[in-house]
From TrEMBL:
Requisite cofactors: [4Fe-4S] cluster
Keyword Metal-binding attributed: yes
TRAM domain sequence ranges: 429-491
Origin species: Salvator merianae (Argentine black and white tegu)
The protein's name: tRNA-t(6)A37 methylthiotransferase
Amino acid sequence: MPAVCESLLEDIEDIVSVQDPKPRDLQCRRENIIPKVRKRHSTRNVEADDHPPSDSVIPGIQKIWIRTWGCSHNNSDGEYMAGQLAAYGYKITDSAAEADLWLLNSCTVKSPAEDHFRNSIKKAQEEKKKVVLAGCVPQAQPRQDYLQGLSIIGVQQIDRVVEVVEETIKGHSVRLLGQKKDNGKRLGGARLDLPKIRKNPLIEIISINTGCLNACTYCKTKHARGELASYPVEELVNRAKQSFQEGVCEIWLTSEDTGAYGRDIGTDLPTLLWKLVEVIPEGAMLRLGMTNPPYILEHLEEMAKILNHPRVYAFLHVPVQSASDSVLMDMKREYCVADFRRVVDFLKEKVPGITIATDIICGFPGETDEDFQETMKLVEQYKFPSLFINQFYPRPGTPAAKMHQVPAQIKKQRTKELSRLFHSYNPYDHKIGERQNVLVTEESFDTRFYVAHNRFYDQVLVPKNPEFMGKMVEVDIFEAGKHFMKGKPVSDARVFTPSISQPLPKGEISGLTEEFRHALKNGSESKACPSAERQKGPLSHKMAMQLPWQQGGCVLKMLSLSVALLAAFIAFYYGGV
């Protein structure tokens, strides 16, 4: 007798031989069966109606609230997750109270950010909300007590957010924390061509790599993001092209360390930047993200040329953290203060007017008063226009948490002292009276102005003229504050529109091909017609909304369904008559 798997079954019924009874014969036998009368348990049936089985929940119709903490990389991940969920049919809402599920995308850099994350989880549970956790906190420490029993999606698994949300809504707890690999080599993460919803339709955040090559003793992010893994140049260029086709006029390149880009795949940051510059339309701008001193040192000449390009902001974020070599050694930062000075001095000479932003940690373990005074002198010398001052917080599981700690009062005192120094100078006073071209991209927090940036990524506030949004405008600087300037549009100057498409409406899904849009439209129509939904059933609804990046999971689900149907048929055949 041939094996069952030797031929392809076109249908489950093909497994029944010609000698087996036909459905009509089975029906005749059923007529002679006298059904037993069972006593109804009315109370139990009412309870069952109130709490239907989890499989009866139809995914893709719930409201989801997304909260993201932390860096631009994390914000990009949040945009990708929102896009996929919206493409599947979920409604992304700005109201936490109205949402059925909260997606909390966390940051592990500092303790206060994790405290906010933990408090949000508690609040969600108090309000009986479904919860999915994402970001660096659960990726780095998934076994923490307050995370137990909750669904988690890892930083490299964001392309599977629909599956995790779907199972969570059904009442299940799911955890996906694995790394993406190709032939054993770690990849940069989820695909760059996934759907996303940009918080600002004019700004595209592109993660060029994940992880880093350092082992800083205070850093918890390394535990979550891991070793360096870069995206190929071609994929990043294609993502930029797509963004410009969707009306984006400003691109931010982000990662844990942009300077290390490409070292794992045989390329480097300048190579990527020159390729990107080729596809940036006139009037659009590129902003480079944070880079540590060791890796930018190798490319100073090329980086100066790139930062002088008219479509690249003359802006670079280079964290120094401390001006004490002994403290830097304890941090394992792999550079000395002289290296940082060399980077800053070279770029200031070769890129006139460049903005250098930096970070300082106050009160790192072992930092003496002399060490801190060296840091004060560095800030006094360079008068950084953008300075991120951080009081040291020991992060669990890091080497720095086990070091001898500086007393809390001294840490606070040093933080205040450095903050006073930073606020003692005004970096933009000398620019009053200048005429500048600025790119307008957003509205100010107080809603009174539009926010623009000049060639050096200085913030310039301009009048709220709707014609300015997404445009390059010529302004005269007439006022300067600590963190901004104010510009008056030149009366006879033209408003330059970048040679790109109209931006997507706020909240619209980016990256949807016609195939995606067709699937989304079909799913929306089925939700709008309850009678059709009853005829099709939950499975058909899910298949209508199945998008290309989920098709692998779809095949597995269909295989499981086929096995279940076959088992039901066999049980019916042998036990139903």
